[in-house]
Amino acid sequence: MNDFTTGKRTTAKIGNQTQRLVVWLVTLCSLLFLPVSCSNDQTDEAAQFFLRGNVQLQKREYREAIRYYTEALDKKPDFADAYNNRGLAKFRNDDREGALADYTRAIETDADFGAAYLNRAEVLLETGDAAGSLADLQRIEKAYRDSTGYQTRLGDTYVRLNDPARAQAAYDRAVQLDPDNVEGLTNRAALYYTQRAYQQAEADTRKALALNPKQDAALNNQSLLLARVGQYTEALSYVERALRVQPTQPYYLNNKAYLLLRLNRPAEALPLVEQSLRLDSKNAWAHRTLGLYYLDQEQPTNALTEFRQAETLDASVDELYYYIGTAESAAGNVAGACDTWRRGASAGDERAKEAYRKGCGN
Question: What is the architecture, at CATH level 2, of domain 1-194?
């Protein structure tokens, strides 16, 4: 299919019948400081603004929370807890840069502020700085090593750093510390999927859904697991449930489009994959899905454009070389098709290998 997902929405890749594995960047790891740890020189006004900000943050009124924390910081510029909590409010209001700046200010104000390091690690990971995220996590390892949320975040970071052995160890520890850690189970399932350990991936995904039937990343991933074995109708029901939770999640939109193509419903698939690409134009899996649409519509030139774009973005997309070769063949370029299938076979694409054997005389 298309995109396999993990709990919060970082992304670890996954195979074709599911494309991308979405990793949950666990919200339980974003630490909100509720107590006011005020020293004698902090004014009562700063403390009151801080507490009002906490109330608004818990009510998910993020702009109001930011306003109150800013008032607290105007009264007391070295208020580390206010920087941390304002960072969390900005993060939840989709202001990654603002959150990163506030977490950094919290750390500059209090170099031992463990929760701020943990929160900053999340933002760094989401903004593509996995090495920076790991550095922050290692800084607080002694204090947080027995936290299931910390271990989940560590696993997410190692996934991004392409270190599956350490990621596995961290996820295992997270689930050992809390067998009901939905994010840890979801993200470990994604890792299992990329390693083709499908039974383990399904076990973790099913447990995550038993604990939280509305966990959208796990719903999406279950859809992908079903699609992998050709159960497209049942798979569609799961990704539609994921979309009811996150209606504009680009990976889920793309996965639904892929399933609709497999169910011979191309007119419904096209607007979904186009919407997915408007939301995330760099998703190789979505370009592959659009290429499949054009291939089904007997438009091999358009299909090749999309498949080539997918190759540029991520050449490891499942069966990509098989489909590029198929489009080349449909366009009348038999030599190009054979060359593409041969390269795919060398890269382990079994369908490309079979197409080369059947179509190229070797």
Answer: Alpha Horseshoe (1.25)
